[in-house]
Automatic annotation (TrEMBL):
Pfam families: 2_5_RNA_ligase2. This is RNA 2',3'-cyclic phosphodiesterase. It comes from Serratia oryzae. The active site is at H43, H125. A motif (HXTX 2) lies at residues 125-128.
Length: 180
């Protein structure tokens, strides 16, 4: 039996923000806009790893644990639609430099460990709707939600009873912004 797991590094959303986002989504988007991502599955992917062996997972966790990076605030003030994957996403007009640096580090560690990394530029986003065929006709929430990222996590993506579930496997702190 294979012991590989489908993994990704991500930022989670604080519970209160998660609830605000799903309430807004329910009001702003009609049912035909797409299939809503479950509240517990809302996250911002930093690096997608694909199917990873237990040995490679251990190595990637060790590397992640060595990262010393300052925490940062993310302003969710942008909204868009990607027709090809059919997703509506929430993002940031100006992603903080520290977020881009963290993702870049995790993605380069993943690439060096043999995990394929897409050549497309990294665009930090939270997928809100899948199977979304229409462009969004909804403005982003104003003035935008802000959340503080004080840790990042490793998740396993699993399909259980036909539904995608994300399980947090580990998390690592990001340093206090006032005391890097
Ligand atoms: P998405 O939300 O834009 O679909 C878990 O599947 C997470 O990893 C999701 O956030 C998903 O991004 C991302 N992901 C899934 N497959 C991917 C791939 N082949 N390349 C990059 N990211 C991927």
């Amino acid at each position: 039996m294979s012991s590989s797991r489908r993994l990704f590094f991500a930022l989670s959303l604080p519970d209160a923000l998660q609830q605000q986002v799903i309430r807004w989504r329910a009001e702003a988007f009609p049912p035909e806009a797409g299939r809503p991502v479950a509240a517990a599955n809302l996250h911002l992917t930093l690096a997608f790893l694909g199917d990873v062996s237990a040995q490679k997972e251990r190595a990637l966790q060790t590397l992640a644990g060595r990262i010393r990076q300052t925490g940062f605030s993310v302003c969710l003030d942008d909204l868009g639609h990607w027709p090809r994957p059919g997703v509506v996403w929430l993002g940031s007009k100006r992603a903080p430099r520290a977020l881009l640096q963290l993702a870049e580090l995790l993605r380069s560690q993943a690439a060096r460990s043999g995990c394929y990394q897409s050549p497309l530029p990294f665009h930090p986003h939270i997928t809100l709707l899948r199977a979304a065929t229409q462009p969004v006709a909804v403005p982003p929430a104003t003035p935008g939600w802000i959340f503080s990222a004080d840790h990042f996590s490793l998740y396993q993506s699993a399909v259980e009873h036909g539904r995608t579930r994300y399980h947090q496997l580990a998390q690592w702190p990001l340093n206090n912004q006032d005391n890097p």
